[in-house]
Design goal:
about 90% helix; about 0% strand; 9 helices; single chain; mainly alpha; disordered N terminus
Length: about 280
């Protein structure tokens, strides 16, 4: 009896395992068939596409991938409030124009002072004061102009020559720093206009809330977006102009230091020539 019970138990376990395996096979076979069918349908759909449609799909994918920072910046600029964006853009254009004008002027004003001093000393030895003045007239830059003013007062004494050089040096410094105040003005105005656009945009957003009688994100989203865009572009313009401003100031400092060193050497050359 016990052996019969064990035999029946083993037979039941074997039959249960076989039924479970059969059920698993029945369950997985339809999934495999569905997956293969989906693949075949996708391949057939791709084959049905014309070459023109395939090229159009590829072009759309390339356009989505090629969205650059410049494109996004331009799109956001257009979405901003034209009343403030146009003024901020005008500040950028005028500020860049003044900065480029100063950079070109300072580049032309730069002079190789050591070379000029050597030529000036040779001119004094060969042609005297008139030869040195002719050299300064034919040389470009503020250093040569300062030297010419000193040589023009040579007959009045070395003290007058020194005063003339100092006075005319101040004039040349003023010319080098011309338009810097306007550049700094646009650096200050651009973010202020951006903040003004932000405040006005927020006022418009609260007016929309008051008119609708409901605080809904869709009501105030456009106004807040425009307000923030004006601030962003105002700060971008200020940063760009600040970089150019600092470059111009550093260039002016270099030229002024060169002028001061050159005038000291110039006075030494005149004293030696006067002896």
């Amino acid at each position: 009896m016990k052996k019969l019970f064990v035999f029946l138990t083993l037979a039941g376990m074997l039959s249960l395992g076989l039924s479970h395996a059969a059920f698993a096979e029945e369950h997985t076979e339809p999934e495999t068939e569905v997956t293969e069918t989906d693949i075949e349908e996708a391949e057939e759909a791709e084959e049905e596409l014309t070459p023109a449609e395939i090229l159009e799909m590829e072009a759309e994918e390339e356009v989505e991938e090629d969205v650059t920072f410049h494109y996004v910046l331009k799109e956001q600029f257009i979405e901003g409030d034209a009343r403030f964006m146009s003024i901020i853009l005008l500040c950028l254009i005028i500020g860049l124009g003044l900065s480029l004008e100063r950079i070109i002027y300072l580049h032309l004003a730069s002079t190789n002072t050591k070379k000029l001093l050597n030529k000036l000393e040779e001119a004094l030895k060969e042609g005297g004061i008139e030869g040195a003045k002719e050299l300064c007239r034919n040389t470009r830059g503020p250093v040569a102009s300062i030297f010419y003013q000193g040589l023009d007062r040579y007959e009045e004494g070395m003290e007058i020559v020194e005063k003339s050089i100092v006075s005319y040096g101040s004039v040349q410094m003023g010319r080098l720093e011309m338009n810097l105040t306007w550049i700094s003005l646009f650096i200050a105005i651009a973010p202020m206009l951006g903040f003004m656009g932000t405040v006005i945009g927020m006022i418009g957003a609260f007016d929309a809330i008051a008119a609708a009688g409901d605080i809904s994100p869709t009501i105030v989203a456009d106004g807040i977006k425009v307000a923030l865009l004006t601030t962003v572009f105002g700060l971008i313009v200020a940063v760009i102009l600040q970089v150019f401003y600092n470059y111009v100031v550093s260039k002016i400092d270099g030229i002024v230091n060169s002028m001061e060193d050159a005038t000291i050497s110039f006075m030494d050359i005149l004293i030696r020539h006067n002896k």
